[in-house]
Amino acid sequence: MKTLAELAQVLESARKRQKLSYKALAARVGLTPLAVRQALSGKSALRAHNLMALADELGLELMLLPKGVARSFQPGGAAADSAGLDMGSASPAYVSQLDRLLKTLATDSPAPEATPSLPPTDSPEKDR
């Protein structure tokens, strides 16, 4: 997603899919219904922590990806192609098909989570 409108459409679609009112969603994330309605219509931008709370409540994960990885989910990208999606340039169609991809991914069996182990960090001792 490159625009606030595309982000808002994905969030709004998830809200509708879960049959949540603006008031109920707002209560769950600690915002006013007006703030949620404006954010999900693309009329206002949310602070990052409010955006993460909304996404979480809607069963979505906000992720930052390297541009090369993100491009694979854009029209003509490898992830979109492998999912059989025609991600045309029209924004509503793009968002609708991205929503279908998210639904497909959500219904797939989750892979076991691998927790990478990081080597212990040695704190440098100060010279005395």
Structure description:
With 128 residues, the chain is mainly alpha-helical. The protein folds into two domains: 1-63, 434 Repressor (Amino-terminal Domain), CATH 1.10.260.40; 72-100, no CATH class. It contains seven helices and no strands. It has helices at 4-17, 22-29, 33-40, 48-57, 67-71, 78-82, 91-107. α2 (22-29) crosses α3 and α2 packs across α4 (48-57). The longest helix is centred in the C-terminal third of the chain and has 17 residues, at 91-107.
Spell out the blueprint of helices and strands.
Blueprint: H1 4-17, H2 22-29, H3 33-40, H4 48-57, H5 67-71, H6 78-82, H7 91-107
Subunit organisation of the chains? single chain
The major sheet is characterized as: none
Question: Stretches where pLDDT falls below 50 for ≥5 residues?
Answer: 85-90, 109-128
CATH topology label of the largest domain: 434 Repressor (Amino-terminal Domain)
Query: Could you tell me the strand content as a percent range?
Result: under 5%
Radius of gyration: 19 Å
CATH architecture of the largest domain: Orthogonal Bundle
Briefly characterize the structure.
With 128 residues, the chain is mostly helical. The chain is 52% helix and 0% strand.
